[in-house]
Amino acid sequence: MTCRGLELLKGAEVLVYDHLVDPSLLQYCSPTCQLIYVGKEASSHTMSQEEINSLLVDKAREGKVVVRLKGGDPFVFGRGGEEAEHLAREGVAFEVVPGVTSAIAAPAYAGIPVTHRRMSSSVAFITGHEDPTKGSSSLRWEKIAGATDTLVFLMGMKNLGQICSLLASNGLDPETPCAVIQWGTLPKQKVVVGDLSNIVEKVSEKGISAPAVLVVGEVVRLREKINWFERKPLLGLRVLVTRTRRQASKLSSLLKELGAIVVEVPTIEIAPPSDWDQMDRAIDRLGNYDWIIFTSENGVRIFGSRLWERGKDARALNGVKVAAIGASTAQALRELGLRADRVPDEFVAEALAGAFKEEEVRGSRFLLIRAEKAREVLPDALREMGGEVEVVAAYRTRTPDGSSHRLASALQEGIDLVTFTSSSTVVNFAEMSGAEDLPRLLEGVTVACIGPVTANTVRRYGVEPQIVAETYTVQGLVHAITRYYEQRGRNE
Length: 492
Hints:
It is a single chain. The protein is of the alpha/beta class. The protein has four domains: 3-89, Cobalt-precorrin-4 Transmethylase, domain 1; 102-229, Tetrapyrrole methylase, C-terminal domain (Methyltransferase, Cobalt-precorrin-4 Transmethylase, Domain 2); 238-268 and 400-491, Rossmann fold; 273-398, Rossmann fold, CATH 3.40.50.10090. It has 19 helices and 20 strands. It has helices spanning 3-11, 49-61, 80-89, 102-109, 141-147, 160-169, 199-206, 223-226, 245-257, 277-284, 297-309, 327-335, 349-355, 377-384, 403-413, 423-433, 438-441, 452-459, 474-491, and strands at residues 14-17, 34-37, 40-41, 44-45, 66-69, 123-127, 150-154, 177-182, 190-195, 212-216, 238-241, 261-264, 269-271, 291-294, 321-324, 365-371, 388-398, 417-420, 446-449, 467-468. The strands form five sheets. Strands 6-7-10-8-9 form a five-stranded mixed beta sheet, with helices on both faces. Strands 12-11-18-19-20 form a five-stranded parallel beta sheet, sandwiched between helices. Helix 11 (297-309) runs parallel beside helix 12 (327-335), helix 13 (349-355) runs parallel beside helix 14 and helix 16 runs parallel beside helix 18. The radius of gyration is 29 Å and the shape is elongated. The mean pLDDT is 90.
């Protein structure tokens, strides 16, 4: 997606989109945008081309900002030219935004450059599926076979055998390297390499079907050296992310960068506390505390918001020391303009309690900002050391509406790995799926936990996690997952 394409997508009032459009792009549309699917698959067309043309004109004449979203480039075998012609005839103003065609993108993700200074100085893009209403083919096979160094065929799976036969019978060496790339650029990408004489048989053996791109030429040999995408350690791995919707993006993004297929089903969402009285009283007398301790970035974010609503800002903490459990919590404090005076090396309550043994705790007054339901390890330890501790709930966690259905669907479709980033995600996951069935539901699924506390919660349900991060952060969790699969790959 180009920057201009994304800009228009965000401003669309009507979006008319195709079958091969990545569904994740739809999230950039306004909630009020009308989404109209007009996808075409083999022998199954939602709308005829004439109906799509009329739809575009009708919506434009309603005064709407209409975006026609196509896979790849609209003018490369995408009927964009036909639609633009119709709009021009009807006097509808339009703009064309070029895209990245699969004829280039799919080979690139398969490690095949369509041109190369030593191997290929020319490339041709050819349709493998001509308009059946034309009557006769306009492809001049005797010219195509020797026209360019690299040939890229789109939509040619149905006619793959015929294409290879025609190329060979028109002078192309039967041993010319070929590659068929299915679902190019996506984590489910599959690639089969052969030559004109055997590629059909190899494709059949691997069960490759449309959508796929056929590349013919010497450049296919470069795949052995520069096949970069399929070397990603988590390629094709279906990972269930259970964090809150607001926090899931960072973990999901890191996993996607490593090739994973991410399925987001938040098992918790953050809600306000039962009442704000405790928080408001604490904010009104912040100067009475020696320390304020934050156990999560959610606590920091909500505290900062409530502080602002009470007509105060970071200056209200003047002279009060601040402690944070975890690097992400410390970062959230920095965004409020506060530097944490103490962050334990291990991001758990026990480690912070241990760190305070170096302080003169007796008589010190602590304000602990946390969730309504949380472990009592830290306040109990501070009280044992002689500290005065006031615990204030900044938020509570609950199960999101409709999440049980989404979780059931995700488990039914199949997942390879589930990630848990807090004990709350585990407890809610168990409640949503049935705690007594958890060992059965997660049989054959790798379980990854952000740290030992979360791992112990998983064990209480009779499930042994295979991955426990040594650094209790999102980055630490992703690192542990990557290392686990790399080691497993080497052992296999």
